[in-house]
Design brief:
Growth Hormone, Chain: A; 3 domains; 520 residues
Length: 520
């Protein structure tokens, strides 16, 4: 991610109430940003229904934000040097407020997706710069404390996101999940400007790799569009999908060649020569993609096929942060003493256990049965980020940490968007397969089907209504079985990721601030 541009002399740490208010303002901005990655998940059925699109198209609300955010992250370093930390941070917060307001006003899905992409793009510099400004506010000896406090906001936000999103969707209306950013953002911007405006970093004109950036947008955008539209256009039977696939592959090839030969690349691909970097970044990206894909499917399944309200789905999703908040400080304090590869392995084993538990759900599963794996998942979250970031950044010179952190975060956020698209597509495809298999067994020769039809008929349902009821039951079962398939496959993939962690060389931990700074 970003670092401050070279300063003539380090600024002195803030003192007393200025430091306290500075920490609150920067944390509030981060909270608002992270909240927006999870708040829409439980609101997707309401947004899709209100704007007249399918739930698969509704996932674009999440993926458009993530892809634009991923593209903006590598630009943060250049923008910081060009405009200064404080000015860029303020611009990021204020543009985020405006784009949130526009998201709430969106009259249709196309406009909402465009504004969500804008929101994701302007949010890119916010998290790395909040870390940079926070670390400059504290003496070096307290850097670990500063990052621990900052990390708490990024762990509390995913807890609050589904709860707040569910409650707002059920009790007010979905646009308010975006409008609530306005007062929080204005407060954070006002306090930050008051405290940090005299602590601006020096600026200088540095060249921007415009061609590299254009190629990055081209291949990532084409790949994500292909994944998002594949289902509705019947994949490679569609000329549009084939064209996007070709553009993505050719664009990626040109991007690789250009970035490896340019003097000032937007993404420093030479980092992949380091074994710890590529093994850590790959494990982080794939694991995050798996995690995020499952986080999107669970509330969709609960609301569409289990009769849950958005608030109830939010309550199921919220406890993921509880144990993460308890264990994260312990991991941060001990990661320098215990091999981070052991911690990461433990995290993947717990993720696999959680997903295996979910793969045994049925339509009779009650609220608490569904919630227990979510609570346990908090343990996996705590042991996930910091150890993997420590592995990824280990052994790098201080001047390369920013580029390495930016690149690994780009890979992680992009994988999250792709994980969402792939998981929802696989879920719907498996559901169609299960539906076809279940329908074959619903006939007069099947005793259970015959008694269900007779029971419904005697309750006063017409023949058409009986068939509609049966179809609804088959739908519910087929989507549940499909969700089980996705959960089970994800559990197996988490186990297969463990060897990648052990490809890394044994490492001494990066500094607390480096580990925490890269973790999000």
């Amino acid at each position: 991610m970003a670092t401050a541009s070279a300063l003539p002399a380090p600024l002195p740490p803030l003192e007393g109430s200025a430091r306290l208010w500075g920490t609150i303002a920067l944390s509030a901005a981060t909270f608002m940003n992270v909240l927006d990655t999870s708040i829409a998940n439980v609101s997707l059925p309401a947004i899709s229904g209100d704007l007249g699109v399918s739930s698969t198209q509704g996932t674009w609300v999440i993926t458009s934000f993530a892809v634009a955010n991923a593209i903006a992250v590598p630009l943060t370093g250049w923008l910081t040097q060009r405009f200064g930390q404080v000015r860029l941070f303020m611009a990021s917060v204020l543009l985020f407020i405006i784009s949130s307001w526009l998201c709430g006003l969106a009259p249709n899905m196309t406009t909402l997706i465009a504004f969500r992409a804008l929101q994701g793009f302007v949010a890119g510099p916010m998290i790395p710069l909040s870390q940079t400004l926070l670390l400059s506010s504290y003496p070096k000896a307290k850097a670990g404390l500063a990052m621990a406090m900052w990390s708490m906001t990024t762990l509390v936000a995913p807890v609050m996101g589904p709860l707040l999103g569910g409650w707002i969707t059920d009790n007010i209306s979905w646009p308010w999940i975006f409008y609530i950013n306005i007062p929080v953002g204005l407060l954070a911007a006002g306090i930050t400007w008051g405290i940090y405006r005299k602590r601006e970093s020096t600026t200088r004109k540095v060249p921007i790799d415009a061609i590299g950036l254009a190629l990055l947008v081209l291949w990532v955008g084409s790949l994500q569009l292909m994944l998002d539209k594949g289902k509705e256009l019947d994949w490679f039977h569609s000329a549009e999908i084939v064209t996007m696939a070709v553009v993505a592959v050719v664009g990626f090839a040109f991007f690789l060649v250009w970035e490896l030969t340019d003097k000032h690349p937007v993404v420093d691909l030479s980092l992949f020569k380091r074994r710890n970097f590529w093994s850590g970044a790959l494990a982080t990206a794939v694991a995050y993609g798996l995690f995020f894909g499952n986080v999107v499917i669970l509330p969709l399944w609960l609301q569409q096929y289990m009769g849950y309200t958005a608030t109830q789905a939010g309550m199921i999703m919220a406890p993921v942060g509880l144990l993460a908040i308890v264990f994260s400080p312990i991991v941060g304090l001990t990661v320098s003493k215990i091999d981070p590869r052991r911690y990461a392995t433990f995290s993947f084993l717990v993720f696999a256990l959680v997903l295996w538990m979910r793969s045994n759900f049925n339509t009779q599963a009650d609220f608490w049965t569904i919630m227990i794996p979510t609570v346990i998942q908090g343990v996996a979250m705590a042991f996930f980020f910091i150890p993997l970031v420590t592995i990824t950044l280990s052994g790098l010179a201080p001047d390369r940490i920013a580029a390495a952190s930016g690149l690994s975060n780009f890979a992680r956020i992009t994988a999250g968007a792709m994980g969402t698209s792939i998981a929802t597509t696989v879920w719907e495809n498996r559901a169609a397969l299960h539906h076809a298999q279940l329908v074959e067994s619903v006939n007069q020769g099947n005793a259970a089907a015959s008694s269900a039809m007779a029971g419904l008929g005697s309750s006063g349902f017409s023949a058409d209504q009986v068939l509609a009821q049966l179809n609804r039951i088959v739908d519910q079962q087929s989507f549940m079985l499909a969700a089980n398939d996705v959960f089970y496959a994800s559990a197996v993939l988490f186990l297969l990721l463990i060897p990648f962690v052990w490809l890394a060389k044994p490492t001494r931990a990066a500094g607390a601030s480096d580990a925490a700074a890269g973790a999000h």
